[in-house]
Amino acid sequence: MIFGTRHPRTSSARSRLTLAVTALTAAAALAGGCGDGNSGEAAALPNIPMAQDVGASEGRLKLVIWAGYAEDGSNDKKVNWVTQFTKATGCKVEAKVADTSDSMVALMKTGQYDGVSASGDSSLRLIYGGTVAPVNTGLLSGYADVAPFLKNQPYNSVKGQMYGMPHGYGANMLMYRTDKLPERPTSWDVVWDKDSPAAGHVVAYDSPIYIADAALYLKTHRPDLKIKDVYALDDEQFEAAVDLLKQQRPNVNQYWASYTDELQSFKQANNYAGTAWQVTANLAIADKSPVATTLPSEGATGWSDTWMISSRAQHPNCMYKWMNWIITPKVQAQVGQWFGEAPANPKACRYTAKGFCTTYHVGDPGFYQRLAFWRTPTADCGDGRGSTCADYNRWAKAWTQIKG
Questions:
Q1: Domain of residue 164, CATH code
Q2: Buried b (16+ CB within 10 A) or exposed e, 354-369
Q3: In terms of DSSP bridges, do strands 92-97 and 60-65 run parallel, antiparallel, or are they unpaired?
Q4: Distance between CA atoms of 208 and 214, rounded to whole angstroms?
């Protein structure tokens, strides 16, 4: 069964982490990273006040979003959770779609928006850059219903202080053609082994964050590297991951930023195996393509999005009302099925299509404990090693070299 007819997260020109050089200039504000990207001085946490109450509606709310996160019926008359929000709160929503995390950071820095649906690769930059404010979870009526493994995580909190309301999440699954690989792969070696039966037909995610996938594989297969956190890699660990990616390069048929590009290549049997989102598999299966997904023995990377409030929000009451609205079960069910993701509130499963929550492993923390959710790499390893890890500057530069 397919649970959504489109996945608006991507376009042909976008990925969750941009490959553009402009990403490098934002690294100075990374959490626990370097003051200038290279000095090794840890960034200080800005002293931003937190709301103590929610007052009357200001009548307006300006958001920066991933496409599909604030539907008002204009794309599909049956898909609309914004109009009811406005009727209930008096807050008229204006949404600005951003197609990369770096675009989101840049837009939020202007101070013209009240909130953002930040992914884990951008949230720390927003926090340490003083762009977003800590969130008073006591003012979030649905916060208690959020899956525990999405709260107080390294990508949405600092020192136990939450900086947002979790929204939705997903796994970067291993997808494969069952006619080309009749035995279900149990390891990611199908994409990393140079003699893999998928050689020449491997698909990989087109982003520096994909270096974490290589580190995840090495974490199991190169125990001598002692990798514990795939986003906190010292020089030896980082170079090993980069070398593995360079070794993989001849076998890669496609680097994808748009899920539709990957989908077409799998349907045409140009791709045999690689990283994909579950919604991509759903669409392929709906078109009767022989594909399947699996979570290999090494685990996988994943992503989790969080609603964050601007430190300069002009309509903070409406933003808190939005966070309370978006986490309600019925709205979570609508967003999850339209967007193609697991809702942060498991109670949404009461309102989803049959089988949806099983497919997306909602209410299965054991599944997501096997994932390493995207987080911006910083120089500060965060574990006592000091500022000896490769920051995002190095990841982005290495990615350019890897692809050639």
A1: 3.40.190.10
A2: eebbebbbbeeeebbe
A3: parallel
A4: 11
Kindly state whether residues 323 and 257 are assigned to the same domain. Answer: no
State which residues form the domain around 190. 172-300+378-403
Query: What is the number of domains present in the chain?
Result: 2
Specify whether 260 is located in the same domain as 187.
Answer: yes
Per residue in 12-71, pLDDT (tens digit) is 333 333 333 233 333 333 433 433 333 333 568 999 999 999 999 999 999 999 888 999
How far is 69 from 50, CA to CA, in rounded Å? 25
Residues 354 and 206 in one domain: no
What are the tens digits of pLDDT across the range 270-283?
999 999 988 889 88
Calpha distance 102→129 (Å, rounded): 13
Picking from 12, 40, 36, 42, the residue whose alpha carbon sits closest to that of residue 24 is 36
Q: Model pTM?
A: 0.83
Strands (E), 100-201: 115-119, 157-158, 161-162, 165-171, 173-177
Residues 49 and 102 reside in one and the same domain: yes
Cα gap 61→36, rounded to integer Å = 34
